[in-house]
Amino acid sequence: MLNLSLVSVNKGSKCLLHNIDLSISPGELSIILGPNGAGKSTLLNCMIGAELKYQGQIQFENIELKQWPIKDLSKKRAVLSQLAGITFPFTALEVVQMGIQEDAIVKDSRILCLDALDKMGVASLAHIAYPLLSGGERQRVQIARAFVQLASSEQGKPQYLFLDEPTSALDLHHQLQLMQQLQTLAKKGLAIVCVLHDLQLAAQYADKIILLKEGNLMGVGKASELLTEANIESLYRVPNHIVAHPSSGRPMVLLK
């Protein structure tokens, strides 16, 4: 489990996060929502150990996060950031192979990587140079790399996947494909934390919604509890109407 207790981040006179109390558990797809500048990426960076200038406590598997060696962390959590620039002409397959752990015991790492590319619908691009791919294709290759990193790590132990706006470069079909895969992985025991801007995707796929406003935790809970007309207007300053999805019963946000 990942536990944050009274976590705050200040940059100069600006408070980016204020006294965040939060727990992330295996088997849940947690989605962080909030407007621009709410502190979503800062919160994610705290969770993955990229933001070390915080006050409070962050315990990962009952050990303070700052005390974890990077190599050990890489076996327990994979990260997909917003910017994953690679300018060298590695092929898509070679980029995914970068996710293989150094001491991994994998019967056939090439098959593992090709399977990850196939799940993301880019197996046909395996031997294409990564810089030649479109933004959406690069995104799917990087997601495949993250999948491979965890698949080649410690099995049978809690693992975590952190994604910062993973759907931003994807078309509608591949957005749904990714969210369905994340939902499936969470059901198999993976702890997944995802920053999104799309309220509809969050409402339909999240096990847990985390609402941030101006660095403060506005609420943690199910979509049906938190995605209310009042909360959405408070967060995004837009009039809206909530209706139930005809199939899932989950909330759908309609803008007035």
From TrEMBL:
CDD domains reported in the protein's UniProt record: ABC_Iron-Siderophores_B12_Hemin
UniProt-recorded Gene Ontology molecular function terms: ATP binding
Keyword terms of this UniProt record: ATP-binding, Nucleotide-binding, Translocase, Transport
A Pfam family reported for this protein in Swiss-Prot or TrEMBL: ABC_tran
InterPro entries tied to this protein: AAA+_ATPase, ABC_transporter-like_ATP-bd, ABC_transporter-like_CS, P-loop_NTPase
Matching PROSITE patterns: ABC_TRANSPORTER_1, ABC_TRANSPORTER_2
Keyword check for DNA damage: no
Keyword Transport: yes
Annotated function: Part of the ABC transporter complex HmuTUV involved in hemin import. Responsible for energy coupling to the transport system.
NCBIfam families recorded: PRK13548.1
Name by which UniProt lists this protein: Heme ABC transporter ATP-binding protein
Lineage: Bacteria, Pseudomonadati, Pseudomonadota, Gammaproteobacteria, Oceanospirillales
